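#onboarding

Welcome to the new folks! Below is a worked example of what a typical request in this channel looks like: someone posts a single protein sequence, and someone else replies with the predicted structure as tokens. Don't worry about understanding the tokens yet, we'll cover that in week two.

Example request:
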Amino acid sequence: MRYTLFNAGKRIRPTLTLEVCRALGGDLKNALPAACAIEYIHTYSLIHDDLPAMDDDDFRRGKPSNHKRFGDATAILAGDALQAAAFEAIARTPDAAAVGPMVDVLARAAGAAGMVGGQDLDLAPRAGLEEIHVKKTAALFRAAAHLGAIAARSPRADDLASFGLHLGLAFQAVDDILDATERGRRNFARIHGPEKTRRRAAREVAAAKAAIGILGERGIRLGQIADFILSQDR
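Example response:
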């Protein structure tokens, strides 16, 4: 579990949870368990995605992927344990009233309606890329922002969830540009070309920023996260 969890990574999703809570004036103590939970879910998905039956990747962030280091069975169990650890973390949220809503948001984003459903579609050769990206990638970004809003007890949860959704689509578009030549996999950049995909990423970032316009100066750091994502293909 630790091998993949602490193997570099930008920690964008948990940072998003914390910064949304901060922007909305919430107590970060209520957001920290959810931030850990979203990273646990993301890490478990990476371990399972790398398995031979899924994306079959031998390396993750420059190191042997979990199943190459420990074997398929241990990798599966590590991913399972991280998924369970995510909900254990949320259960320890100081604001007990936030636990139920947080569990609901995370479970929906991680399950059949979200990330797992997106991975299933990704295995189908004729599935639409838009739906795959909305579920497989953007759903967790949306949840990350939504969890931060719940932690802050904010009535702006829908606006922040929209911010996260557009940010996730921008992240995926940029990732597609970086992976355009990787093993011939279908993605936006391979189908539409890097420039069109880059313009798509820029539109998604603009939409994300529009969703947090209501925050004014309090949303500056969230806007910087969006700009950081857009800059990664340069």
